Amino acid sequence: MKLFIYDHCPFCVKARMIFGLQGKPVRLVTLLNDDEITPTTMIGKKMAPILQKDDGSYLPESMDIVHYIDRLDGKPLLTGPSNPVLSQWLAQTAEYTSQLLLPRFAQADFEEFATDNARQYFINKKQAAIGDFSRHLANSADLIARLEQDLPALAALIVSPEAVNGTLSEDDIHLFPLLRSLSIVAGVTLPEPVEAYRNRMAERSDIPLLLDMEQ
Per the database entry, which stretches of residues form a coiled coil (predicted)? Predict the structure, then answer.
């Protein structure tokens, strides 16, 4: 199977995770960020991730891909319950984490930004959504301080480095992509349970963190 992705994209990380957790092989194909033709030809619109199944058909939407792969052999791993408090934490931090992450993604050496046009496409789209990147970068200290105020509440929710609720669940699929994205932000101090969980989930999922792009 092939999985068409952007490396920076947290939704793509969700789809990548289940292959690593399940130990299933997949070929990753990174699309240029300004390539509208390839995904539109596959599924009728520009988005990622897209899974090309063994039969050649295409499946979009990260969680649909997760469910398909997890249940493919009748031995699902994501069997644990979800924690609504964690969902609330993720929603709360989503109000500002894009301001930390998107300007840094735009400057990083991701394969989807291999051309100037692809990088500028991303910048134009995301600045239209969240505002001027330079303003958010200048506000990094305040944003990091806000994040570090919220992280202890997350630390209290982590039951084990092996799974946030003790047993693998969809909560892991939603939490790890954010923590992986945040590894690009220099100067963030993670509580020990959060760092241990992030590092172990990166290992289990076979998805490297972004520490070499830290800024």
Answer: none
* Cα 182 to Cα 59: distance, rounded to the nearest angstrom: 28
What are the angstrom distances between the C-alpha of 203 and each of 4, 20, 104, 112, 128? 21, 9, 23, 23, 35
Region class of 184: left (phi > 0), else alpha (psi between -120 and 50), else beta: alpha
Compute CA 215 distance to the chain's CA centroid, rounded to the nearest angstrom.
Answer: 18
Q: Which residues pair with 3 in a beta bridge?
A: 28, 51
Of the candidates 189, 104, 197, the one whose C-alpha atom is nearest the C-alpha of residue 151 is 189
How do residues 43-95 score in pLDDT, each as one tens digit? Answer: 999 999 999 999 999 999 999 999 999 999 999 999 999 999 999 999 999 99
Domains of the chain as residue ranges with CATH: 2-71 (3.40.30.10), 84-205 (1.20.1050.10)
Q: What's residue 106's pLDDT? A: 98
Chain-centroid distance of CA 21 in Å reads 15
Please state the pTM of the whole predicted model. 0.96
Instruction: Give pLDDT, residue 71.
Output: 97
Write phi, then psi, for 209 (nearest 5 degrees): -75, 180
In degrees, rounded to 5, the angle at the alpha carbon of residue 202 between the alpha carbons of residues 79 and 28 is 90
Q: What pLDDT does 147 receive?
A: 98
CA distance to 34, 37, 179, 180, 183, per residue, from 157 (Å): 38, 42, 14, 18, 20
Note the maximum CA span of the chain: 49
